[in-house]
């Protein structure tokens, strides 16, 4: 049963892209890792449907912090954003319908804290404007998997002008 995650990459990804665990492109996780028996294409379709009228938006990088169980993972916290919070709730509700364990923390967590994890010297700087234009569904293959993480589906958000014209 695949373990999946839904992210908003800071640079667009393509379906089929793969990368090692340590080489994750910078991103904001919007649905924490979850298990699903559904076909990845079905999960991708659910995400696309949930975000079908979502326009791209900008968020801002805030202060650095340490996350994780041991508080040893360096991150940059994203300043609270109503559009990001709404999209996160929408995606969690949509994806919950195909989750193998709909009561796992990915769906029942009490507080979404958007952040960008620092990886191998790559990071976002405080006050940076981050324009979010895409959602990606990623297979969280085990760390030992030589193929690494794989992008299963992507959904491009609508440009602001396109939404107004619809």
Poorly predicted ranges (pLDDT <50, ≥5 residues)? 162-166
Distance between the termini: 38 Å
As a whole number of angstroms, the C-alpha radius of gyration is 15 Å
- The helix/strand class is alpha+beta
What would the principal axes of the Cα set say about the shape? globular
Helical fraction equals 10-25%
Main pleated-sheet profile: 5 strands, antiparallel
Portion in beta strands: 25-35%
pLDDT averaged over residues? 89
Task: Give the strand order, joined by hyphens, for the main sheet.
Answer: 2-9-8-1-3
Task: Note the run of SSEs as H and E.
Answer: EEEHEEHHEEEEH
- What is the tally of helical segments? 4
| Total beta-strand segments | 9
Keywords:
alpha+beta; 5-stranded antiparallel sheet; globular; 22% helix; disordered C terminus; 9 strands; 166 residues; 4-stranded antiparallel sheet
Question: What does this protein structure show overall?
Answer:
The chain is an alpha+beta fold and 166 residues long. It is 22% helix and 34% strand. The protein has four helices and nine strands, in the order βββαββααββββα. The chain has a five-stranded antiparallel sheet with strand order 2-9-8-1-3. Strands 6-5-4-7 form a four-stranded antiparallel sheet, with no helix packed on it. Strand 4 and strand 5 (73-78) form a beta hairpin. The termini are far apart.
